[in-house]
């Protein structure tokens, strides 16, 4: 019998791959997405398509208004950086970083895992091809897992909640190769920070640059519709 696991699902390339990995490893994914005040809803539509493609039966979309605080190009009226070289993306934490986002998302996932009596949470963070975000590092994941085991009823009663970050040490190309082998349809995912109203990717933001380079390096055809 499959074990339940909460899978954080944004609708992007990485989270879709993680959902497929959870299924491969014998878990029953319970997908968790957020309407957090992000500048577009295209990624939520993508998350719903991924749920359908992978046959995930349980999917919750939770409202959390991070736009009330702003401070990010994804949750505030701040221009999304375009045309940056990947080497620039690790020099400093970019304005697309959303303060405490993964901490908040993992906290909700932890709460749902307790209700489901699930010992496992999956998240698609990556410490190699990433945009300098502090909450995508192994140290952060390890620290959150330790906190979760101390601060939950399940943890103090002997449970061993585990935060799975199977992409943490993979390049974007490796992620794409892995997901392709698992049958992930990347054509239905959205990674772009600034897509148009129809969900077409800008092709120039950091997320688009990393995605494009990943497909090229993986020698896999990129199914993403770009405006250019």
Question: Which structural traits does this protein have?
Answer:
globular; 228 residues; Rossmann fold; 36% helix; 5 strands; alpha/beta; 5-stranded parallel beta sheet
Count of distinct strands: 5
Quick check: average pLDDT?
93
Poorly predicted sequence stretches spanning 5 or more consecutive residues: none
Reported by name, the CATH topology is Rossmann fold
Strand order of the largest sheet: 3-2-1-4-5
Topology summary:
Elements (H helix, E strand, L loop, with lengths): L2 E6 L4 H12 L2 E9 L6 H13 L3 E6 L37 H16 L3 E3 L15 H13 L2 H4 L5 E3 L7 H10 L24 H13 L10
Parallel strand pairs: 1-2, 1-4, 2-3, 4-5
Helix pairs in contact: 1-6, 6-7
How would you describe the overall organization of this protein?
The protein has 228 residues and is of the alpha/beta class. It has helices at 13-24, 42-54, 101-116, 138-150, 153-156, 172-181, 206-218; strands spanning 3-8, 27-35, 58-63, 120-122, 162-164. 36% of the residues lie in helices and 12% in strands. Helix 1 (13-24) crosses helix 6 (172-181) and helix 6 (172-181) packs across helix 7. The protein is globular.
């Amino acid at each position: 019998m499959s074990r339940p696991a909460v899978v954080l699902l944004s609708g992007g390339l990485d989270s879709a791959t993680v959902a497929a990995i959870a299924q491969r490893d014998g878990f029953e994914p319970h997908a968790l997405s957020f309407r957090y005040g992000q500048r577009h809803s295209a990624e939520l539509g993508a998350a719903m398509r991924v749920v359908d493609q992978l046959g995930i039966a349980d999917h919750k979309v939770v409202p959390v208004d991070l736009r009330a605080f702003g401070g990010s190009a994804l949750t505030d009226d701040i221009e999304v950086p375009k045309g940056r070289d990947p080497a620039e993306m690790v020099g400093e934490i970019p304005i697309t970083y959303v303060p405490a986002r993964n901490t908040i998302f993992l906290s909700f996932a932890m709460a749902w895992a307790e209700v489901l009596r699930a010992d496992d949470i999956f998240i698609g963070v990556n410490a190699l091809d990433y945009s300098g975000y502090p909450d995508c590092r192994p140290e952060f994941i390890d620290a959150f897992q330790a906190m979760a085991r101390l601060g939950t009823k399940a943890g103090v009663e002997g449970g061993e909640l585990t935060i799975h970050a199977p992409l943490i040490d993979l390049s974007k190309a490796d992620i794409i190769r892995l997901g392709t082998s698992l049958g992930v349809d990347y054509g239905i995912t959205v990674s772009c920070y600034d897509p148009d109203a129809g969900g077409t990717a800008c092709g120039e933001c950091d997320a688009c640059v990393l995605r494009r380079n990943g497909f090229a390096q993986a020698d896999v055809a990129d199914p993403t519709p770009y405006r250019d």
